[in-house]
Amino acid sequence: MAKNKLTRREALKLNYRALVIWQRLCPRLLLSIAASSAFQALSPYVTIWLSARIINELAGNRNPKELLRLVILQLASAAILALTEGILTRWKYYEMHSSDCVHGKIYMDKMFTLDYVDIDRQYVFDLYSQILQNNNWMSWGFRFTILIFEPLATAALQCLGGICMTVSLFLSIVPKGSRFAVLNHPLCTLSIAAFMLLATVLSPVCSNRSSRYWTKFASSAKLGNRYFSFYGFIRDERTRAEDLRTYNQHENVYVHYLKHIDIYSSGGEIVKLARGPMGMWAVCAKLISGLLTGTAYLFVCLKSFAGAFGVGSVTQYISSITKLFQGISDFLKYMGSLYSNGEFLKTSFEFLDLPNAMYQGSLTTEKRSDRRYEIEFRDVSFRYPGSSQYALRHVNLKFRIGSRLAVVGMNGSGKTTFIKLLCRLYDPCEGQILLNGIDIRKYRYDDYINLFSVVFQDFRLFSLPLGENVAGKADYDRGRARKCLEQAGFSDRLTAMPEGLDTYLYKEMEQNGVDISGGEAQKIALARALCKDASFIILDEPTAALDPVAEMEIYSKFNDIAGDKTAVYISHRLSSCKFCDEIAVFHEGAIIQRGSHEELVADETGKYYELWHAQAQYYVNTG
Ligand code: ADP
Known about the structure:
CATH topology of the domain at 368-451 and 537-623: Rossmann fold
CATH superfamily of the domain at 368-451 and 537-623: P-loop containing nucleotide triphosphate hydrolases
Bound molecules: adenosine-5'-diphosphate
Strand content: 5-15%
Distance between the termini: 58 Å
Structural class: alpha/beta
């Protein structure tokens, strides 16, 4: 993460870049905010100006017709302004709410398209969780740019309006002979204007210095925020509820929670800063602003007292000058916030600018109804990023089209890694994987991955209706989804489901949702793989959570289930691989044996024989 401090210019550039993205994603958002800001900034001046005219008339000519005209004008403008404000505010809120989804989508799109290898990287994880924390904290980052845009634009326009309304204050002349005629002297006018300007700038400078401590605090709060986000919400995680109760984990949770969120406590870092320099700068800001208001009142009242303008103009000048100062002060303050936000945006863009380093091919795969796709691993070796150990070493393997290949081996022997490479989640460090003789890197990834249906060991289902889980979309062929569930051995359970295919899984999204066992989930995942109807079906430990009866049921039907697809079946339970045409035995990342069950079990010196007999004792009837 960034260590160097940003310059103001860089911070502004980052905010500008964020605004451009907002403008591209929500074309009417900035316009609605700008319109609302302009209105908020300028409309009070209409009231101020009309009120001043009314008071001047009351204190001067007292012409009833003119008074009536001014009052009607005041009332009519108040009504029109209120109506316009309502319309503009409503439009702005509509656009703001619509932008909420877009905001989440900015990161979602990036997350979904990151190279798989990057998802595992601690650096990427840190970056992303930091962005989330910043956003949860004070909407820092993208959201802040849009939130600050409104008050910033309002403040800028307020300054503009204020200047127009107060120019005449400095230009108006005190009548000659008055003892306050010195106020006409250009030096006097200039020094008062200069003092006011200085105080107007100094107050927000102090205020910014105070709020800058928040940015300083951001890095030290990082760990605290992470603990807070994790331990603070464990109570909501249903999947932890059993462990929490059985192991009394809540006591340990409290220890970590309270220890690491100490920064937020009464003796914590924030409070210390608030008592110290942060609070001191805030007090200075308030003092200077008080001094400024006092000077403005004194100057305006003296000029009026000396006869430069009427009492009505006093209200106009005092109100306008206050608004002008407030505008300048707000503008500088918000510019300071914009600057602070630069640091947070830097993190956001660091994440959004992460390149896709994996080579993206452009070839499309040949569309074959006979599924004659041949895969070959040619001398493939692979090491996980940052690891010195090879997870796969010199793997050579050709898949026979339409065959059933079993990949067996002990835990950690490289079976899952082999599948991850096949699915191009990672690229080999050495060697090549070929599809019909062409390196798979040369194919378009979305096209290539369409050839595979995989049930990963750690697959996840959604808290959505069962049928939607199987089909992967809301609008699906119900007959097909039902058939796939049936093939996966889920028929009985489907019949028992209260709303059949429309039954929600889990209760996160629907209180009438059903909880399912690990084995049932595995069957649904298998049905999902079948529903995709890809040319390769890959099952990674597909029966680990099934009971022996269900396991047998799947094996006996597996040939039918896989049909004309090429199937890869991974398991460390050897008895479940006997039905496969060929078995590849993995050991320490290499394929050390290949053949049918009968061939391999006959080789008494081989690893397969050793594993088979080690496992046989667990099965009454191992065959
Ligand atoms: P299996 O599926 O046969 O149990 P794996 O393919 O999961 O084995 O793992 C092979 C080796 O690669 C193991 O030594 C494992 O520790 C290592 N490994 C697996 N995943 C990662 C990862 N994401 N990063 C680093 N090493 C990994």
